[in-house]
Design goal:
Two copies of one chain form a homodimer. Chain A is an alpha/beta fold and 367 residues long. Chain A has twelve helices and eleven strands. The first copy, chain A, has two domains: 171 residues, 3-Layer(aba) Sandwich (Rossmann fold); 183 residues, Dehydroquinate synthase-like, alpha domain. In chain A, α6 packs antiparallel against α7.
């Protein structure tokens, strides 16, 4: 299936006391016994995946896990954000209970962010918590869901409104799985990679600029570095603020505007990463107005976002609609919109902004 | 509403690092501003209660909270274990989202164990966690739900299968609310009080025997001591084992048999405390067979359980049905039933037992 690897897997340790775990990153990891060693002992495993990923990778993962667990069950969910709801989550509980799974059963999330969110919340809640392992098969999930322990489902009145902070026992990022990823989703994942430059690491921003073509060509070495460095930066930030009370909010750079785009167009119209890419352009322009960065920096990051295949102009929802949507965002506090702004390249802060300046940014960033 | 108190409230501190909290125990606490001081600051509070408790205590709690929160919302759920499901839980999320509640909103659980379990799980899950306060209005909830952080809803295939370990910010036990409790529920609560004697504290067992009439007469001083000592013992056990990996299982004394009674008869036929009362008699007889306690001790505790108004003879489901039900219990591991047995008065252990001895116990304890 996969070409022989020349490189040993990379590893990032997420230090969270007795909930510490490792992210393993490399090509061909799915089939390697070493990827699954030393996981919590259990009689059974349940693989949660979806109808798109199952035909590609389910049997390979099952084969690898069968050497380790007496029984390997699976549940194949319909694919799509619109299924990230209670009814679909309940199919995981149905599977666990109908197979008589006990509280040591290990859940494996094989797929993108939606599968990871649902399998993670199911693991957090089943018998008040069973171990789970993330096996992300999209770039977005590899760089974003690997660290932070966020799990959730949607409610008809809001996205990700019901969930838990729950840490995996391990994350295994097999870069070979990115070969089957649609180009649009690769770009969406790159949005979250690019994000780490402006908020935390100018040198990484330089590296992404120099390697954007290799990333778009899915070269494993370039992908490995991008995933590893993204996870490292996120781990540094999350390690200082596991429950998202303060600093961690900088990871939402581009997300306040991005969520408004997603909600305004109807979820699923744009991919999350596309909305974040465009949202970063807006957040950069707001940062410039607030005196954080200069026009050259805004232009440079905007150009990189465009090269990654992401939109840089938002939909014309009207400024008042954007403001209304941002005021009901989960991160708003008592109706005040919180923006992540760049104070200088590599440093971000969370703050409010005058509505008029937000309106100006929206006027020049949408059509 | 309440008689003037001569006693200051009792307080038990639950030490759990940055999740430590206090249990306040006394008569008339509902109306006292001091009961609600120093809770996490928030714009809004949501009181979760049910159709039985709301007419009795909702307005009093609302009045007390209105001095502290700008907005006090409520959601009144149907009363009964059969509503401890996702659909009813979702009514709490609907209320939170339709009122635009942010992630600092404090949830108050006003009611018995079902309300506490659902409000607690809603608080654990809403935006991945908001603060919550338990205001238990049954004896069972005061001694059992106050400590341990267990929250859950039922699944059609099993009780309490979906939930979280989530600690309250405070527990306020107003003993006056026990005046409206039906006698059968008072007895059910006493089962969990009596439990702490055999597993942890022979002196407390002596005290309960000496004060059982005062407890049945709902004398506040006796109730205060019973609630306080029960919470202290549970806190000691839970403090050593927050996630229920080992020691904490001794709190399930009487529960393995009890759950089989509940499941075998259909949930709701016997109250949980009634099943636990009878289950303790069975567990004591099993302990005697395993050499832990003598016949006199079994007789003595059985007599106390009967004086508390609890059943001491189980329904005739048949031994094989009992065994089958106990094997699928959440606490079973790979199909092996785990019993809490008394090793000597005041000390319990979790262990397996030969099926034949269990059958003998069931034969003499059911009809």
């Amino acid at each position: 299936m996969s070409a022989p690897r020349s490189e040993p897997p990379q590893q990032v340790r997420i230090a969270l006391g007795d909930r510490s775990y490792h992210i393993r990153i490399g090509a061909g990891l799915l089939d390697e016994a070493a990827s699954w060693d030393a996981l919590p002992p259990a009689a059974a495993a349940l693989v949660v995946t979806n109808t798109t990923v199952a035909p590609l990778y389910l049997e390979r993962l099952r084969a690898a896990l069968t050497t380790r667990y007496r029984a390997v069950f699976d549940v194949v969910l319909p694919d799509g954000e619109e299924y990230k709801d209670w009814a679909t989550l309940n199919r995981i509980f149905d599977a666990l209970l109908s197979h008589g799974c006990d509280r040591k059963t290990v859940l494996f999330a094989l797929g993108g962010g939606v599968v990871g969110d649902m399998a993670g919340f199911a693991a957090a809640s089943y018998m008040r918590g069973v171990p789970f392992v993330q096996v992300p098969t999209t770039l977005l999930a590899q760089v974003d869901s690997s660290v932070g322990g966020k799990t959730a489902i949607n409610h008809p009145l809001g996205k990700n409104m019901i969930g838990a902070f729950y840490q995996p026992a391990r994350v295994v990022c097999d870069l070979d799985t990115l070969r089957t990823l649609p180009a649009r989703e690769l770009s969406a994942g790159l949005a979250e990679v690019i994000k780490y430059g402006p908020i935390a690491d100018p040198a990484f921003l330089d590296w992404i600029e120099a390697n954007i073509d290799a990333l778009l060509a899915r070269e494993p070495q370039a992908l490995a570095h991008a995933v590893k460095r993204s996870c490292e930066i996120k781990a540094e930030v999350v390690g200082q603020d596991e429950r998202e009370s303060g600093l961690r909010a900088i990871l939402n750079f581009g997300h306040t505007f991005g969520h408004a785009i997603e909600a305004g167009l109807g979820y699923g119209e744009w991919l999350h990463g596309e909305a974040v890419g465009c949202g970063m352009v807006m957040a950069l322009r707001l940062s410039q107005r607030l005196g954080g960065v200069d026009a050259a920096f805004v232009q440079r990051v905007t150009a990189l976002i465009a090269r990654a295949g992401l939109p840089t102009v938002g939909p014309a929802l009207g400024a008042e609609r954007y403001l209304e949507l941002m005021r009901v965002d989960k991160k708003a506090e008592a109706g005040e919109i919180r923006f992540v702004v760049i104070e200088r390249p590599g440093q971000a802060a969370v703050r409010a902004a005058p509505d008029d300046q937000v309106r100006e940014v929206l006027a020049e960033s949408t059509r």
